[in-house]
Design a protein that fits this description.
The complex is a heterodimer. By secondary structure, chain A is of the alpha+beta class. Chain A contains three helices and six strands, in the order αβαββαβββ. Chain A has a single domain, classed as Alpha-Beta Plaits (2-Layer Sandwich), CATH 3.30.70.920. Classes of the chains: A alpha+beta, B alpha/beta.
């Protein structure tokens, strides 16, 4: 578990909602694989609801993330459209509270 | 005009705490690793804290019954039944106290007449002797030793009984030694208590923190429920020290007597803490077991580490303390603790704080992170190398 915000290394994360056209026999799997092979796609889920694939994208700059979405992801055959949300702040990750507790403030010596 | 003494003789006669001066030293230093604490390093599990917060949100801000919330007493009764097969009537035989600390005080004040004697294993938790004296009693220490893993022997208790003896005060798992008593040994103590018609005050606040052994509740021994004041609490098992909550379980007659003092001095334990404690008993078991597993790992590292650097240490099976011998350094426990703090910035508690038999030992608490334990052991190793005389 890494708290990227505390690492000091600039990183830009975005959640790209991707609407795709499923294919006969393989459904969403083939297009999902085309997407998850890119190292920029850090996490990929198939979702129920108004879009199909949730892709968590990471890059060094906003420009890099935007470039990945517009030049690699959106033009893929079968991708109908994308909606990109940039991540502003992490509160909790995989069960860990990012700006967590410092632990109890104990009296250093006590019988 | 003759200057009048403002402080009572009884209070004056209680010696000042030997560890106060360490506070000032620590406050003036950076980078101190403290093995001198007496409480968990975990924060109270969130769902228990949330129950406390919720009780405040809902406006539970008034007094409860002097005995404590009935729902909490019912949960405590259920706990004692499930865990120790003990039956206590939640309406008449349980009292919710402000920590076991209050329980110790109430128990002693409820049973002692001036000059009555209380037999107490040495070393033991610091409040036992002082509360006995404050209650007008006389404390009679029973020596325990590393050769017997700091367990108290029934025959040693027996030797100190006289017509003035009113009670035996046991604290196992023990602070400061980490010693536990097994069922056979407790049965022998029970026989002494029976033969001399004594009350047994059993402080079992560390009962959940045992490693590879079963805790035997003293009140569960044959015939002992009628003469035992069982004291338990939430501080150690659920990491709830700051909530200040414990309980006493005993016969109606004794609980009624303790409640008399409690109602005039305390009224009732804090309501929000009681609400949180209900949650702890209902849903806290998984967290208790996680914490115990974590303490156990640290315990092993600490015991091995201390023995490796030449501070001989028996294997403590309870609480979260180790009690190594410092004889190889030739220092008194007070000197050891002070020099270790000044030279290596590691805080421990001198064994002599807990009684004469604690001299030659220090108490090291392993309720701290593994990284700190390892660093502390390294620093202590350097210290022992410099000071070793044998």
């Amino acid at each position: 578990m890494v708290n990227w915000d505390k690492l000091g290394e600039e990183q830009v994360w975005a959640l790209a909602e991707v609407k795709v056209t499923p294919q006969r026999d393989v459904g969403f799997d083939a297009i999902a694989e085309r997407i998850y092979r890119f190292p920029e796609a850090r996490t990929v889920y198939l979702m129920s609801g108004t879009y199909d694939l949730a892709v968590l994208v990471v890059g060094k700059t906003m420009h890099e993330v935007a470039g990945f979405v517009s030049e690699k992801l959106a033009p893929l055959e079968g991708v109908q459209g994308t909606v990109t949300h940039f991540l502003l702040k992490r509160y909790k990750e995989d069960g860990e509270i990012m700006d967590g507790e410092e632990g109890p403030k104990r009296v250093p010596i006590m019988p | 005009m003759k200057k009048r003494d403002l402080i009572s003789k009884r209070v004056k006669d209680i010696p000042p705490s030997g560890i106060r001066r360490f506070f000032d030293i620590i406050a003036s230093m950076d980078g101190v690793i403290s093995l001198g604490v007496g409480e968990p390093d975990f924060v109270t599990p969130w769902h228990i804290r949330e129950a406390g917060i919720y009780s405040i949100e809902k406006g539970y801000t008034s007094y409860t019954s002097n005995y404590g919330l009935l729902e909490l007493r019912e949960e405590i009764a259920r706990y004692l039944k499930v865990r120790h097969n003990l039956d206590y009537d939640p309406e008449r035989e349980l009292l919710v106290t402000v920590g076991v600390s209050e329980g110790v005080d109430l128990a002693l004040r409820a049973i002692l007449d001036p000059g009555d004697e209380v037999v107490i294993p040495d070393p033991s938790y610091v409040s036992y002797t002082s509360c006995t004296v404050l209650a007008g009693g006389v404390s009679v220490p029973v020596p325990t030793a590393i050769e017997n893993d700091f367990k108290v022997k029934a025959q040693d208790i027996d030797k100190r009984i006289n017509p003035r003896t009113k009670a035996i005060l046991l604290g196992y798992p023990n602070n400061p030694t980490g010693a536990v008593m097994d069922r056979e040994e407790l049965l022998k103590v029970a026989e002494v208590a029976q033969r001399h018609s004594l009350v047994v005050i059993s402080d079992e606040v560390y009962e959940r923190l045992v490693y590879g052994v079963e805790h035997t509740c003293f009140a569960s021994l044959p015939g002992m429920r009628e003469r035992t004041i069982l004291l338990g609490g939430f501080s150690k098992a659920y990491a709830m020290t700051g909530w200040r909550l414990g309980y006493a379980a005993a016969t109606e007659e004794i609980i009624e007597a303790m409640m008399k003092i409690h109602q005039y001095t305390i009224m009732c334990a804090p309501t929000m803490a009681q609400m949180a404690a209900i949650k702890a008993l209902k849903d806290g078991e998984a967290q208790v077991q996680e914490m115990v597993a974590e303490y156990n790992q640290r315990r092993r590292v600490m015991v091995k580490g201390l023995n490796d650097i030449g501070l001989t240490c028996f294997e403590p099976r309870g609480a979260f303390y180790t009690f190594p011998s410092i004889k190889s350094t030739g220092l008194s426990s007070d000197e050891f603790a002070e020099r270790l703090l000044l030279e290596e910035r590691v805080a421990v508690v001198p064994g002599s704080t807990f009684g004469q038999c604690g001299e030659g030992y220090v108490r090291c608490c392993y309720a701290t992170s593994m990284a700190e334990i390892e660093e502390a052991l390294e620093r202590m190793g350097n210290f022992v190398k410099r000071h070793r005389t044998q």
